[in-house]
């Protein structure tokens, strides 16, 4: 079983790259994208957060249910849904302005898991009080034997020294850490984390694990935008770990050939996402 923790929000995405382009709502949030992507890939996955009862929250919940994501431990509240206004650069890369005051996901009360995979990340780790509860859930899940995976997905608006230290405090519980190449310097030394996967944009993915280090290139694709690309990678990695039935020892025993297969699957999945507008992650049949 895979449990994904963190926010679900609505991205307001411009229809085109002109400065005053109309904004179109799109369902998003790193953990939401990861959970829905895992569901689309056929994984047994649950989502823990707090969703609003407003129209956006209802749409987020229904989208997860449509992907067969279990919402049993996902709270609901009358607070509004977090909004992220997206700006697109000429190369399709996205930046975000967040509206987070008093929103539902800030009041999540996550429950740790006893086994399987526990995936944490993104905005939910930058906003109290929920961030403190997610940190506790990560620590307790690791103590119980779950494999904790972290994708900090650091946003410039929240890249403070306090946030850096908070994230570093999580690392003792983490088995698999996913970083973008821009985040490596911000977070600092991660040599004590057993597995670190780094996204290299068009250059692919690199993993540093007990066997050593290997890099796998990305497929060539016409990029619509990069929204959800990193979330797709995180989902694809955990899906592969889970599909192979790996416990922590098995994960740490993976060799170069097996890692190449896993990373190749993840780059193929991400290539499909970036070829489409928004975080429209692939379904299992698209990767057969």
Automatic annotation (TrEMBL):
Keywords on record: ATP-binding, Kinase, Nucleotide-binding, Transferase
SUPFAM superfamilies linked: Ribokinase-like
A GO term for molecular function: kinase activity
Alphabetical list of InterPro entries matching this protein: Carboh/pur_kinase_PfkB_CS, PfkB_Carbo_kinase, PfkB_dom, Ribokinase-like
Record-annotated Carbohydrate kinase PfkB domain positions: 2-282
UniProt similarity note: Belongs to the carbohydrate kinase PfkB family.
Name of the protein in its database record: Carbohydrate kinase
């Amino acid at each position: 079983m895979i449990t994904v923790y963190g926010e679900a929000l609505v991205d307001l995405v411009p229809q085109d790259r002109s400065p005053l382009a109309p904004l179109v709502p799109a369902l998003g949030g790193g953990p939401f994208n990861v959970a829905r992507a895992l569901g689309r890939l056929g994984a047994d996955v649950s989502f823990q957060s707090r969703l609003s009862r407003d129209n956006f929250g209802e749409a987020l919940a229904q989208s997860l249910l449509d992907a067969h994501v279990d919402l049993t431990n996902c709270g609901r509240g009358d607070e509004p849904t977090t909004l992220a206004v997206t700006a697109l650069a000429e190369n399709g890369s996205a930046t975000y302005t967040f509206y987070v005051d008093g929103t539902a996901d800030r009041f999540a009360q996550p429950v740790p898991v006893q086994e399987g995979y526990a995936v944490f990340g993104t905005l939910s780790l930058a906003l109290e009080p929920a961030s403190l509860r997610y940190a506790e859930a990560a620590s307790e899940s690791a103590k119980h034997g779950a494999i904790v995976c972290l994708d900090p997905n650091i946003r410039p608006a929240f890249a403070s020294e306090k946030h850096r230290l908070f994230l570093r405090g999580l690392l003792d519980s983490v088995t698999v850490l996913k970083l973008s190449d821009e985040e490596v310097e911000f977070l600092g030394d991660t040599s004590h984390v057993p597995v670190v996967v780094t996204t290299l944009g068009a250059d692919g993915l690199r993993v540093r694990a007990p066997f050593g280090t290997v890099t796998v290139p990305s497929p060539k694709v016409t990029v619509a935008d990069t929204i959800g690309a990193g979330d797709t990678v995180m989902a694809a990695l955990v899906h592969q770990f889970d599909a192979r039935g790996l416990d922590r020892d098995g994960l740490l025993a993976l060799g170069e050939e097996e890692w190449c297969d896993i990373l190749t699957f993840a780059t193929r999945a991400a290539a499909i996402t970036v070829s489409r507008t928004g975080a429209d992650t692939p379904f299992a049949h698209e990767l057969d």
